[in-house]
Design a protein that fits this description.
about 190 residues; 2 domains; single chain; about 0% strand; transcription; Tetracycline Repressor, domain 2; mainly alpha; 11 helices; HTH-type_TetR-like_transc_reg; transcription cis-regulatory region binding
C-alpha cells in the first residue's frame, strides 16, 4: 500500500491563523446557527470549525459563549430598531404606529430564534443598566414610543406604548409557539391602539 505525503505549504504558522475579519465571520456564523437551531446549540468550537480556524481563535474576539451571544443580540436589536425606524418613516405620521406594529410582527416571525435570544434569554436581564446590550434593547422601544408620544401626554403615552409593545411581544411569542395561527394582518386588527 502506498501512502502519499501532503505537499508542504508555504504558509507559516502565523499565516494559518490569519482570517481577515474573523469577528464578523463568527457573528455571521452564529446568526446562521441560531436561525437554524436556536441559541442553545451554539458553541465557540462549532463556530471555529465553520470558519475554518483553530478552536482557540474565537477567544481572541469573545471571552466566552455568553459574550458572543451578547454581541449577536446587540446586532439583532440594532437591526430590529432599524427595521422599526424605517417602517415609522415610510409614510404618513397617521399610519406610523400600524406600520411599526406590522414591522415588529414581521421581524419576529422572520427571525424567531434571534428574537428569542434578544427577548427570552437571560442576557438582557443579567446585563447592567449601562451596558451596550441594555442600551440596544431599550433603543428598540424608541421608534414606537416616539410615535405614541406624539399623540398624547408623555406619562399616559408611555403606558400606551408599553401596552402595545406587550401585545406585539405576546403575538410574536404565541405565534412562534404555535398557539396563534392568525396571520399578522389579522393580529394587527386586534391590537388595542
Amino acid at each position: 500500500m502506498t501512502y502519499h505525503m501532503k505537499k508542504p505549504t508555504t504558509k507559516s504558522k502565523r499565516d494559518a491563523y490569519h482570517h481577515g475579519d474573523l469577528r464578523r465571520t463568527l457573528l455571521q456564523a452564529a446568526r446562521s446557527e441560531i436561525a437554524a437551531h436556536g441559541a442553545q446549540s451554539l458553541s465557540l468550537a462549532s463556530l471555529a470549525r465553520r470558519a475554518g480556524v483553530a478552536q482557540s481563535a474565537p477567544y481572541r474576539h469573545f471571552a466566552d459563549r455568553d459574550e458572543l451571544l451578547t454581541a449577536v443580540a446587540i446586532a439583532g436589536f440594532e437591526a430590529f430598531t432599524e427595521t422599526l425606524r424605517i417602517a415609522s418613516e415610510a409614510g404618513s405620521r397617521a399610519g406610523a404606529i400600524k406600520r411599526i406594529c406590522a414591522a415588529y410582527l414581521g421581524f419576529g416571525a422572520e427571525n424567531i430564534q434571534l428574537y428569542r435570544l434578544m427577548f427570552a434569554s437571560s442576557l438582557v436581564a443579567s446585563a447592567t443598566e449601562d451596558s451596550e446590550l441594555r442600551k440596544a434593547a431599550w433603543a428598540s422601544f424608541d421608534p414606537l414610543l416616539e410615535r405614541v408620544v406624539e399623540g398624547g401626554k408623555s406619562k399616559q403615552a408611555r403606558l400606551t406604548a408599553y401596552a402595545i409593545w406587550a401585545q406585539l411581544h405576546g403575538f410574536v411569542t404565541l405565534q412562534a409557539d404555535g398557539l396563534l395561527t392568525e396571520p399578522p394582518e389579522e393580529l394587527l386588527k386586534g391590537l388595542m391602539l
